[in-house]
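ingest -> validate -> predict -> emit
validate: passed (alphabet ok, no gaps, 304 aa)
predict: started
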Amino acid sequence: MGRASRGVVQRPDAIVSRRSNLAAQAMALAVVAAALGVALAKAPGGCGEVVTIQTHGRTTTRYAFERPTGPAQGDAIAVVLLPGGGGHLDLDAQGCPRALKGNSLVRSIPHFRDLGLATALVDSPSDYTGEDGLAGFRTSSQHAEDLGKVIADVRARASGAVWLVGTSRGTLSAANAASRLSGPAAPDGIVLTSAVTSGAQSRQKPWVSQTVFDVSLDRIRVPVFIVGHAADTCARSPASAMESVAARIDGVRKQVATVTGGPGAPTGPQASIEACVGRAPHGFIEQEAEVAAGIARFIRGGRY
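emit:
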């Protein structure tokens, strides 16, 4: 409530009436949000506004939404961030991840916001919170539809273009969504960093064989930016395979960029699973600002 102007005395009944109106407006907003299947929560000093939406079956999916801190550069743009691993962030009430805190996209959020981009960090749905997180769900039609609901919700908040940015196993989710979705639920473009292009065989966890090549890449009709690191020795994301991914995507604006340098040293001379971690070349360690700036340039129509 604003202060009373000097020399003007506000009557107590007017103050009560104003508070009642504000309370009624807040209640009306909550009713509308509930009707749309969206729950809102904002914790001051946290990592963003926690948004909960209804997804497949009777599940819910949460994401932490933050508006840009940097100056606007043209139309409003939001990036929906899909971390790797199992994808389960275990977001707390303040929108801060309690898991996967070392993921490159989690570390890059301040840089995206400084570049004038809104961010939406997406957690796994309520029925995929176990040790394996999303597991084989990443390439399913239901997962794509869930992300479409997130995209539509973010689009309404940001009032502009919405891009999906996936890293490591998150690239499976981004490519899958872009190949299946259309209309307002479809992303305006996707970014794949350290894309999973090589799988493994496992009887206990058959989903570890999934790669972006299992997705119908030829159906993607939006701009695609593919980024890898020359020193990435993760057995699942060799930078040499990025051109093969781009070759399967036709008729759209696309670019492949290979990052070099940085303090991150390869785990060893041979490709290994141990190198598939965020705080390594696989996760562009200490090069987050450079990579985020390149992503922002591509999204805005330029090149890395």
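The longest strand covers residues 60-66.
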